[in-house]
Amino acid sequence: MKSGKNVTEVVLADAAGIAKAARILESGGIVAVPTETVYGLAARADSDAAVAKIYAAKGRPDFNPLIVHVRDEEQAARYAEWSEQAQVAVKSHWPGPLTMVVPAIEGTALAKAVTAGLDTVAMRCPGHPVMRELLAMIDFPLAAPSANRSGFISPTTASHVLTSLDGRIDLVLDGGPTQAGVESSILAIRSDGSWEELRPGPVDLDALHRNLFGAPLRSKEGEQRIEAPGQLASHYAPGKPVRLNARSAHGGEFLIGFGSVAGDCTMSAAGNLAEAAARLYDCLHQAAASDIPSIAVAPVPMEGVGRAINDRLRRAAAPAD
Question: Which domains, ranges and CATH numbers included, belong to the chain?
């Protein structure tokens, strides 16, 4: 891995760039790759040494598991107990921004750190064409948490990746801004076949469950056991105090707006939640880079992907331990 400042190479996510990334990954390196949610920091999930580089680059706590990115359900079934319930859940959302937490198959080739000692594994089949082309070129799955220092703002552009990881990783594949803007929804399938939401995201898991089973989905929000990424109380932090549900800025606050609340950066002037999700982290990056010492964020409705936006904002505003 390279060291120093301003040394991480950035290449376009074209055929040549993707082939270069595949060679780096095959040799045990780590590469930032665009997905439809945020940029992920990828390494081969079957190598203890490669996965250790992810933890070192991010400064990630070793009790926090990683998401394994796979080509399809067939590849997922090599590493996880792929039940009928799992098949039902992913039918309409793979490839896409849905992560499944399912029982891991004992003795598979996954690096031990991927599951952080749990008997479950988090798996996702991404929909972004760059990540899909990369997975098609290699014969192993990729562990890929968000491509940022642990606890910091997630990246939705290549420049965001460099904000905290420049000089700490081998390569950034620049595929332009991501679309969904917030991390995947995480769904656990329990041994009794029940579903449990571990993290809200672009996929409305409650609506999916109601549509399939006619009943609301259980949520694990607020519980303490870490079973999947994004469950730490303090996360996505901009390094400044954050005040939520602000309809105007106080002195010394950078205002992130939404809808009728105009800000120094506005997530969506039209009040569009999908646009707000896509712009959330970019606004937080702008706020963090400004000379203004504090951040205020306008209210965002708790509906649809607004639940995911509010989840990320609540964790961004939480004091670090």
Answer: 9-219 (3.90.870.10), 242-317 (no CATH)
